[in-house]
Fold:
Amino acid sequence: MNNKFINNSGLPFCKGCGHTTIAENTEKALQKIGKDTLDVILVTDIGCHGIIDKSFETHTVHGLHGRSVALASGISAAVNNPAKKVIVFIGDGGATIGMQHIIDAAHNGFNMTVVIHNNMLYGMTGGQPSEFTPTGFKTPTLPEGMQKIGYNICEIVAAAGANYVSRVVGIGDFSDALASAFTKSGFSLVEVMEICPSYGVKSNPGLKLSKVIEGAGLEIKVFADNNKDNFKTLVKENVKSLISESDNFEVKFPSDLKKPVRIMICGSAGEGVQVAAELLVKAGMCAGLNVTKKGSYPVTVGIGFSAAEVILSPEYIHYTGSPIPDIMIFCSKDGLGYGRATSEKMNENGIIYIDSELNKTNSKAKFINYNFREKFGARNSALGALFYFVNDSKIIPIEALIATFNESKISEKLKVETLMRGE
Structure:
């Protein structure tokens, strides 16, 4: 059989891994039911199984550990088309983390098939036991063997209301079981039992997969085969637009900008970078331009860098952010550390506004130095840099920025005259 859904790059798993067998059986099952590659959306997450993404010719989505079913639920609801097959690959570790997502998806009847790669441990992170690890099964971090009974996910999901649930042994050809799940309307799940060749086999020498399954009391059978109504997304007609007439910005200060300009502001958290970028886009709208803003900052939010990418354009914009900005503004060491690599992609037509205390990057762009932090203070350095940049570049009328600032809440604490000191 020639592959249709798996490309020729080769499967990325360890020799003897059951994940390879699952991928190959998925190929067979999808061909059996006559699906087209673009009718399939494969959703994966963190774990050994998740490195399969590049091998499939279907749509693929990769998410956080244990969250693939949650992502697939959203995709299923948005697509709202049973003819499009949403398939979730998830490991027993991810299923442990995201078990509530699985139960809810089954209960709601979302159109998807979840294929659990149950090798009875966390294979990517060193072989820790999961909540699916059977009694007595040993792992590198639990050499004495699991002392408690693992979850029987098939019974749980069947009780939650799934239309089809089965458990199979991940050896040989089990494509018929997958095909049955793939053709079932609503929620279906197949748990595939396997042993990890890197951790499971080495920790349990001589132990056969059949003996593990038998010793754990796990039945190889179909647990549910129903025809309950599946989830259908309620589509509301004649819904009022979320954008009201009051949200339209009056063009008070027309801009002469002839082409799109991409601007990146890089500074420190808590020093007004995102606020400065928001003022710039609002001022751009007041100048009659199309605008986008993309913010970047670490999870900690309150410390480290803060960066914002803004596009101002007389034309419609189809994206946010830009790999190579036309203009960069550096207000702090944190910002320089984050944006240095980006600045070094800029050519001689680019312009970099940089605080006088910072070292220049190895960029071909033109540098303009100004003592933003000394002049405006650290907390207002990004706002001060913004006013300096707009006044210097004339990218939009400075009057547009002043008017936007004066209408904002910031003006109650900070006077525009303070920010105009850089004239």
